[in-house]
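Homework help board

Subject: predicted structure for assignment chain

Our instructor gave us this sequence and asked us to write out the predicted structure in token form, then describe one feature. I got the tokens but I'm not sure how to describe them. Can anyone check?
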Amino acid sequence: MEYTIHKLGQLAGISTRTLRYYDEIDLLKPARINSSGYRIYGENEIDRLQHILFYRELGLSLEQIRGMMNANSFDGAQALREHREQLLGKRKQLDLLIANVEKTIAVREGRTMMTDQEKFEGFKQKLIDENEQKYGQEIRSKYGNNAIDQSNAKLKNMTQEQHAELTRLTDELYATLAEAVKTGEPSGELAQRAADLHKQWLGYYWSQYSKEAHAGLAQMYVDDERFKAHYDEKQPGTAEFLRDAILIYTGVTQP
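My token output:
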């Protein structure tokens, strides 16, 4: 069945303005333009829009979605299986947060006790699950299951103070990197400060640090389209800039 842009908008619950924007950014093109100048969408476009809306629900940016869906390796059937796993993971995260809220209510009402560690378990597990869903396959194949399991355990066992410091460090890292990119100098003081902050940030996840692993991770930020889209979302070229800064910082020439 075919739909005009207005009919498709009504079917999917999104505006025609959004559909026109998806066309402009090469994310969702109509199947054809009819003699009256109307955009016409067919089954392939409907399926593609469904994927787009799934990804949006999972919190991905339009740039990230476009990068994945326009790649030659994109597999619609596999993407649906991944959507299912991610949605199940998201439900698990919500269940953890709901349980955390319910226990907090019980504490406030004097019906139970709650340790400081328990107060943040849901949030830390949410971060672990999100990382696994987005990047688990790649990082496990690169660093091994044991290393990633140790990293997840380290994050889960963080104290409240460590978690707060990690949040602060993450904000400082992204702010410093954004300013460093503007200089265009990966060897400059700001860029090297960003590389050092990145090393400190890794310390909250990695049980052991090595310059070679740091450089390899930086290269993966460039090679993997999802990492690249994440870093390049606000400023194109950021992933390559960070990679270059880290290579200079570590002194590793062949990650």
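Reply (TA_rk): Your tokens look well-formed. For the description, you could write something like this. The first helix runs from residue 5 to 12. That's the kind of observation they're looking for.
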